[in-house]
Amino acid sequence: MSEIKLPDRHCPLCKLKTIQSTLSINFDRSRLYYCPNCGSFSISLMAFYFTPIYTDKGLCSKLSYFIRHNATEEKPVNILKDNYEDIVKSVILPSVSMQLENFLLWFGDNSKYTLNTVDGYTAYLPAFIGCNNPVEIIQLLDELWKKGFIEMENPTTAPLREREFFDAFCGHLTSEGIEKIEEIRKRISPLNFDITVATIEPILQQKESSKIEVKGSCRLNLNRLLIGDKQIEFDNKVALDGILKAIVAFLNTKGGTILIGALEQNKFTLEQMKSISYKSFEDYYLIGILIENTSTDNYELRLRSLIAEHISKELVELIDITFPEFSEFTFCKIVINKASHKWYYLDKEKFYVRNGNRSDLLYGEDADSYKKRNPR
Ligand SMILES: [Zn+2]
Predict the structure, then answer these.
(1) 123 C-alpha vs ligand 1 centroid, how far in Å?
(2) Distance, CA 12 to ligand 1 centroid (Å)?
(3) 353 falls in which pLDDT band (50, 70, 90)?
(4) Domain ranges of the chain
(5) Residue 121 in 3-state DSSP?
(6) Which end of the chain lies in a sparser environment, N or C, as judged by fewer CB atoms within 10 Å?
C-alpha cells in the first residue's frame, strides 16, 4: 500500500488543478496551498484523511467559503483535525437570494458583462457563491435560468434539477441578466466600503500605507509656494500627479483613503514653513485645505469634476468625499472603494496600482500580468 499524502497538484477542498502548494516541515505534515478559488490555507494530513473532509463535499464547500473570506496570503487559515469542526460551525452562509445574486455577479465577472459564453465547474463554485455543495449550485443555476437571467448551452430541454448530476456547464447571461446585475451593483456598491478609519488622527498616526495616502493640497503648488518663488499658483498638474493618480491606484487595488491638508515634515524645513500657518502633529505639518482659497462645496465640486474629466464620470458611488475638522483645520478625506468589476486609467491610458505606500504606473506586460493575477 502506498503511503498516504496530501495532494500536491490540485486543491484538496475544491479540486481545482494547477495550484501552488508547499509541504510544511511541521510534525503534523500539513501542506500550504494557494488556491485561486479558495485562497491561502494549510491543512494537516490528519485533518484531510481522518475526518469527513475527505468525502464530504458540503464540508469542503464551507471550509472553502470560510477561507475565501478570512485568509490573506500572509495569514493563511490553518485547518487541523481538532479545529475544522469549529471553523465549519462558524460559517454563516448567505441566504438563497444572496447566493443567486453572487451567482449572477460571477457570470458578469466571467463574461465581462457581455452575452459571451461562460464555462463553470460545479465543484469550484460553492466557495464563491456561498452555498453548501455542488448539488445546490445546479439548483441555483436552474433558478437563474427559470428567471430568464441566463441561458444554458448544454444540450438540454429538461430542468437542470431533474437531470443527473453534472460537474461542468456552459451558459451565458441574457440582456435581462445584465440589467439585473446593474441593479444589484447599484444597490450594493455604496455599502462595499471596507475602510474603517473614521477620524483623522489614526490616519496621521499610522503613516502612509497601501491603503492610506496623505497629500498637502489638491491643486495648490506647495513646492512653489514654500520652496520656490513664494507665488500662489493653482495647477491641475498638481492634482494629476498627486490625488488623481492615487485614486486610480486605489480603485485598481484594494481601495483606500486619501487625506488632503497635511505635509510630511521631512519634506519641508521650518524656515520654509514660515509663510503659512500650520501646526505640528506626529510626522506632519497640519495645514488644512482652506489654504486653497475656496469653500468646501466648491472644493468638492472641483474635485469631482477633475475625477470625471481625467478618470471616469461613473465614479460617484465609488468615491466618498467629506471634510472633517481636526486641530482647528479643515481637511478633505476621500474614501475610495475598490472597483470590483473593471479597471480604471488616468487620462484613458495610465494604469496605476498601489504598491506599499506608492502608486506605481504599470506598462504593457506588467500591466497585463497584474490584471491576470488579480482578475475582476
Ligand atoms: Zn480550492
Answers:
(1) 9
(2) 7
(3) very high
(4) 20-90, 96-189, 194-373
(5) strand
(6) N
Ion ligand 1 — residues with CB under 5 Å? 11, 13-14, 16, 35, 37-38
Share of the chain above pLDDT 70, in %: 91
- What is residue 266's DSSP assignment? G
CA 56 – ligand 1 centroid, Å:
14
Question: CA-to-CA distance for 318 and 340, rounded, in angstroms?
Answer: 10
Q: Which helix (H) or strand (E) holds 143?
A: helix 134-146
Average pLDDT over residues 235-243: 93
Q: 107 in helix, strand or coil?
A: helix
Q: Hey, what's the torsion of the CAs at 127, 131, 133, 139, to 10 degrees?
A: -130
- Chain Cα centroid distance, residue 96: 23
- The domain at 96-189 falls in which architecture? Orthogonal Bundle (1.10)
CATH architecture of 194-373: 2-Layer Sandwich (3.30)
| C-alpha of residue 11 to centroid of ligand 1, in Å | 5
C-alpha cell at 104: 449572477
